[in-house]
User: Fold this.
Amino acid sequence: MFCYQCEQAANGGCTKIGVCGKQPDVAALQDLLVYGLKGIAFWANEARKNGKKDTEIDRFMIEGLFTTVTNVDFDAEAIAKILRKAGTILNKAKTLAGPVSGAVPAAAQWQPAADTAGLVAQGEAHGVKSDPIDADVKSVQEILIYGMKGYAAYADHCLILGRESDEIYAFTHKALAATLDKSLGLMDFVNLAMECGRINLVTMELLNKAHTDAYGHPVPTPVQLGTKAGKAILVTGHDLKMLEELLKQTEGKGINIYTHGEMLPAHGYPGLKKYPHLVGNFGGAWQDQAKEFVNFPGAIIFNTNCIQRPADSYKDRLFTWGLVQWPDVKHVDGWDFSAVINKALECPGFPEAPGKEILTGFGHNAVLGVADKVIGAVKGGQIRHFFLVGGCDGAKSGRNYYTEFAEKAPKDTVILTLACGKYRFNKLDLGDIGGIPRLLDVGQCNDAYSAIQIAVALANAFECDVNELPLSLVLSWYEQKAVAILLTLLHLGIKNIKIGPSLPAFITPNVLNFLVENFNIGPITTAEQDLKQILG
Assistant:
């Protein structure tokens, strides 16, 4: 195996077993799924040239890409089942396209092997390094594919809420098909990567509207970190619709619902916070689950990526849902959560133990609602600078940088944060500036859309370019959604971004130089040095 799509990839790429826990057979099956999706994309793109499209094909592409995101599906048999469906979808796309002129790439002629072992062998022949092309072209192709995987996660949440966009589907087919076209060069893929950033913005906007239409705009909300007496279910992941359905099915049953990881921002939505048994947040970011879940005396359910190898001490209380799967972990297929509820009722639950409260719910609607106050504080000199400090968290060393950055940021600065990277500092008491909290939790990783809207509104208010604002982006990355968001920022022309804790292994020196020369992207150094460089 070879995989370098996430930040924790060992020594530039995992070759024996993934640091994430991915086994070689699963890695091979995921590589094969990407290969098969490229083949489907070839035919679907050809069909679209003639005005033909198919909803089943379009939706399968999104679900297939999301399946290969880090920490989603670790179950070889589950992926094998998806691959068999991929063969059927490829044939359907081929029929839809009809005869085509020119050569047909090998991926477009792929058919799945008869059994899982055969599929693994096929995957081993179509890994990341199996196509010997120019290293810089390969680097940008990987950036493009990882960006597509990232927005596929958001598009899947949109689908669950009944929202979709043909623009997203059309680009997915075009871009994946392009990776099979040997006539394309480096700048062709650079341009596609920039377009991928635009499509991710479209996707995040669609998801933001789906969330706010369903649950209202987030409002600043204190979230309890202690516990409430009663039975308990812990929900971790990103999907709000799944949380809503669980809240409905647990009403009146004496079961309290807790969020974990990137579910924390759910507490800010009026349509979810109205349930009195959504009582608090338990634990921190995804990488701490192994040491935290053992202490949760109830059922636990994953609804999107972030799962780690479960310990035996809590595996019998663990459930997965949606595209998330782990071998020998109970999977909920559909919307009936009775198995999760029954397990929670069997468990002891929590005693009453109130704790600290933290704030969430500072989406763009909430922040722009006090825009005059914010702008006045900037013009009056009370707020010197804004920092967007957020992104993915992870277990790799070096991430204490983000805690130190928040601690050492001057008291006349404001920190916007989003995604699970906020767990490095969201329990700190940073105070306020004239009633404006110095730490504003914008939400989940997809809520980068809200952060962008805040930045654009401030730029309009000050009649300047976003890059001229007293605003700096200090980002942490872990997996492919972070790549999609970075591409969106580049598409918008945002410069001077600092990234850590390390640079992606899939970026070659030449590609990095391109990013530095055109966008002044740079790695983080130390909190002190970076603050000094930013603030002068």
The longest helix spans residues 186-215. The chain is about 45% helix and 15% strand. The two ends are 46 Å apart (CA to CA). Residues 29 and 152 are 18 Å apart (CA to CA).
